[in-house]
Design a protein that fits this description.
The protein is about 75% helix and about 5% strand. Strands 2-1-3 form a 3-stranded antiparallel β-sheet. The chain has 17 helices and 3 strands. By secondary structure, it is mostly helical.
């Protein structure tokens, strides 16, 4: 198992360099530095290599960066073994550096790159693995890895914009929740003495006081339940069956369902353009692209469309019965079929789908922001109104 080492060395011109590299042990690390024509000053195990750092997993962003590096190395004429060896040292995270080290070891032992990457399905999805297998068999590793790098960058950008669009509404939601907790924990308890002399309180006043007591006495329980709810959702989402069930529930919600459908369209069309550009047949491209989808319903509909294509039906006509793509996208695909430029058509469909998704996200956030402010403001304002009515009712009773 490789470890992260910090080193200091001198170049042939006498310049000092300090950096990190991954190696099995210190001796291997020194040997690797000597291969780079460096004069080693010191090599020591990175002090941050503790339990927490080992537990940190590689992210999709790390995979995208390494794939880009691998494509560049292969385009410049390096063999796959040499390129993988470079990736071990230049990996953006220690976790991914270990993965590349294991992959390099397997490839050196005679295992295909496809088989070596198959051991890490949490990092390399079906499309990544299948495209690697095709690239090895056709000798097009540089081209395919460049396409995979571009596709991963595209997916990362899409995910980033989605999270960015939802960040502000989430902040508003958290601020409103904090305001409600502050009112029930600090404001209302300080006002409770005003009502102690009153024998019969209005129903809303009694409810307010009881709610305040419950919240102030069970803060830890409430936070634990909220944290447990979030962790449960995350755990369920990681399981295939429950994730599909959750997606079916979410798809019923108008705005969230639309977001899922649009993201699925982008995922499918980008996979189709990538596979067709790599020289796969239409049937094989459809099979791989369908595997990249998350929704079982969409998979079933597109599988039926693929069966029609296998039986000789045109692709655009087959897809039209699934209601998965809009009319403009179907017309682009139809033109691509007739002109023999189907890969270019799916590139255009992907571009349009992404543009529509971004436009839709802007509309969604524009709607969510005032809606959340209205709902949360109504809740906080309602509590304040009940407090004022309670004070007024006490004054009326005392009179």
């Amino acid at each position: 198992m490789s470890q992260k080492y910090k080193y200091k060395a001198l170049t042939a011109s006498g310049d000092k360099v300090a950096d990190y590299l991954f190696a099995v042990d210190e001796q291997t690390a020194r040997a690797a530095l000597k291969k780079q024509s460096l004069i080693v000053i010191s090599v020591e195990l990175e002090s941050g290599s503790n339990f927490l750092s080992h537990e940190k997993k590689a992210s999709s962003s790390d995979v995208e960066q390494s794939t880009n590096q691998l494509a560049t190395l292969l385009e410049n004429g390096l063999r796959i073994n040499d390129a993988l060896e470079v990736l071990i040292d230049t990996a953006p995270s220690q976790a991914l550096g270990k993965v590349w080290h294991e992959v390099f070891t397997d490839v050196q032992a005679g295992t295909t790159l496809y088989k070596a990457l198959q051991k890490y399905p949490e990092l390399f999805d079906v499309l990544y693995l299948e495209m690697t297998n095709i690239a090895e068999n056709t000798g097009t590793l540089p081209t395919v890895f460049r396409s995979l790098s571009d596709n991963l960058a595209f997916q990362r950008d899409l995910k980033s914009k989605t999270l960015q669009a939802l960040t502000y509404p989430l902040i508003i939601f958290m601020v409103c929740l904090s305001a409600i907790f502050a009112i029930f924990n600090f404001v209302i308890p300080n006002m409770e003495s005003v009502f102690t002399s009153v024998k019969e309180l209005p129903v809303y006043t009694q409810w307010l006081l009881d709610s305040s007591r419950f919240v102030s006495q069970n803060n830890l329980l409430i936070f634990a339940l909220m944290a447990g709810f979030v962790l449960t959702l995350i755990t369920l989402w990681r399981q295939e069956k429950t994730r599909q069930l959750l997606m079916q529930w979410v798809s019923v919600i108008p705005f969230l369902g639309t977001m899922i459908d649009k993201a699925e369209q982008i995922r499918f069309s980008s996979a189709m353009s990538l596979t067709l550009q790599s020289g796969l047949s239409l049937s094989d491209s459809l099979s791989l692209s369908i595997k990249t989808l998350n929704s079982t319903v969409n998979k079933q509909q597109l599988t039926q469309a693929k069966n029609k294509v296998d039986n000789g039906a045109p692709l655009a006509e087959s897809l039209s019965s699934s209601y998965f793509l809009d009319r403009i996208s179907l017309s682009l695909i139809k033109v691509g079929e007739q002109s023999g430029t189907l890969d270019g058509s799916f590139v255009e469909v992907t571009r349009r789908s992404k543009s529509d998704f971004e436009s839709w996200m802007i509309k969604l956030t524009s709607l969510l922001e005032p809606l959340l402010i209205l709902v949360m403001g109504g809740i906080v304002g309602g509590v304040v109104v009940v407090m004022l009515l309670s004070i007024v009712s006490v004054n009326d009773i005392s009179l």
